[in-house]
């Protein structure tokens, strides 16, 4: 499909799903998950084009780039901003570990629990990652449905009776869009974008996200030194609640941060940096 066909398909998909969204939340319709990034801008604009009822929400995490927050407040003032009950720095000692690719508790606590009891529009795309390439345009929680909207209608003959049994329904209208499609759409609709993209960022998310690579972490360290300082303070508090966590790294918050930022397994990091940091490898 070309871009026009993809736009038409996505708009029609959102229109078709509105009936279901209103069954879940008659007052607000869709729960639109907004991040301030280019993909969330697209689903916001598509929802407007579809003429459906929706409310956009942005869940702040306490490690949000200030440029993103400023952009959202200026260009999307109707987006509801939700601050976390506890910052990620306070959660680290409570979770007794730093968030990582394997233990990504940060998203679960700070983002993924939002939108319960709604039809939530997401801006995810298959091209972003192997994990997302396996996603479907509509997915549910407790009855584990995953497929197309038409298949969902057949699977759930009476959606109203299923509402109480499902945590939320996830709708991904731009799942098959490419990155070029996204940029072309923003240009077509004459929409501004966050300045971080002009500074080399391809994706916008939390500062020093556990899913980011070593190069992205290094860039964030240069741009956001206060966040690194706050992380090290959180690590110090973590060691007080879980002393064993940093035992192989001298219980040194600076050294532990260097290991975490390296994106290496701990034993690999220790082997490569044994003499440089005088690590006690016992």
How much of the sequence lies in strands comes to: 5-15%
CATH class of the largest domain: Alpha Beta
Radius of gyration: 21 Å
Tell me the CATH superfamily of the largest domain: HUPs
**Largest beta sheet: what is the strand line-up?**
3-2-1-4-7-5-6
Query: Helical stretch count?
Result: 12
- Measured between the Cα atoms of the first and last residue, the distance is 58 Å
Profile the largest sheet.
7 strands, mixed
Structure description:
This protein has helices at 3-24, 38-50, 66-75, 88-95, 105-110, 149-155, 159-162, 179-188, 214-223, 225-241, 253-262, 266-277; strands spanning 30-33, 54-59, 80-82, 119-121, 138-140, 146-147, 169-171. Helix 3 (66-75) links the parallel strand 2 and strand 3 (80-82). The chain folds into two domains: 3-194, HUPs (Rossmann fold, 3-Layer(aba) Sandwich), CATH 3.40.50; 214-277, no CATH class. Helix 1 (3-24) crosses helix 2 (38-50) and helix 4 packs parallel to helix 10. The chain is of the alpha/beta class and 282 residues long. It is elongated and about 60 Å long. The longest helix has 22 residues, at 3-24. It has a seven-stranded mixed beta sheet. The chain is built from twelve helices and seven strands.
Key features?
282 residues; alpha/beta; 7-stranded mixed beta sheet; 7 strands; elongated; Rossmann fold; Phosphoadenosine phosphosulfate reductase; Sulfate_adenylyltrnsfr_sub2; 12 helices
Please write out the topology:
Blueprint lengths: L2 H22 L5 E4 L4 H13 L3 E6 L6 H10 L4 E3 L5 H8 L9 H6 L8 E3 L16 E3 L5 E2 L1 H7 L3 H4 L6 E3 L7 H10 L25 H10 L1 H17 L11 H10 L3 H12 L5
Parallel strand pairs: 1-2, 1-4, 2-3, 4-7
Antiparallel strand pairs: 5-6, 5-7
Helix pairs in contact: 1-2, 2-8, 4-10, 10-11, 11-12
């Amino acid at each position: 499909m070309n871009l026009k066909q993809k736009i038409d398909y996505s708009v029609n998909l959102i229109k078709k799903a509105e009936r279901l969204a209103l069954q879940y939340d008659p007052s607000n319709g869709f729960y639109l998950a907004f991040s301030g990034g280019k993909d969330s801008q697209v689903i916001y604009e598509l929802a407007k084009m579809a003429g459906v009822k929706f409310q956009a929400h942005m869940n702040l995490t306490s490690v949000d780039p200030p440029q993103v927050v400023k952009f959202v407040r200026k260009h999307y003032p109707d987006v509801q901003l939700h601050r976390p009950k506890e910052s990620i720095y306070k959660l680290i000692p409570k979770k007794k570990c730093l968030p990582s690719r394997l233990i990504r508790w940060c998203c679960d606590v700070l983002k993924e629990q939002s939108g319960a009891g709604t039809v939530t529009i997401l801006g995810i795309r298959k091209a972003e990652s192997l994990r997302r390439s396996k996603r479907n345009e509509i997915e549910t929680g407790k009855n584990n449905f995953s497929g197309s909207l038409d298949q969902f209608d057949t699977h759930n003959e009476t959606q109203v009776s299923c509402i109480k049994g499902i945590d939320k329904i996830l709708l991904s209208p731009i799942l098959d869009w490419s990155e070029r499609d996204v940029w072309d759409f923003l240009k077509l609709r004459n929409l501004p974008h966050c300045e971080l993209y002009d500074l080399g960022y391809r994706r916008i998310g939390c500062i020093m996200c556990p899913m980011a690579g070593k190069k992205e972490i290094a860039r964030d360290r240069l741009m956001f030194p206060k966040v690194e300082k706050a992380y090290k303070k959180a690590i110090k508090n973590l060691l007080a609640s879980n002393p064993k966590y940093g035992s192989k790294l001298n219980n040194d918050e600076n050294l532990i941060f260097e290991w975490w930022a390296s994106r290496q397994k701990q034993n690999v990091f220790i082997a490569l940096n044994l003499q440089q940091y005088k690590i006690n490898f016992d």
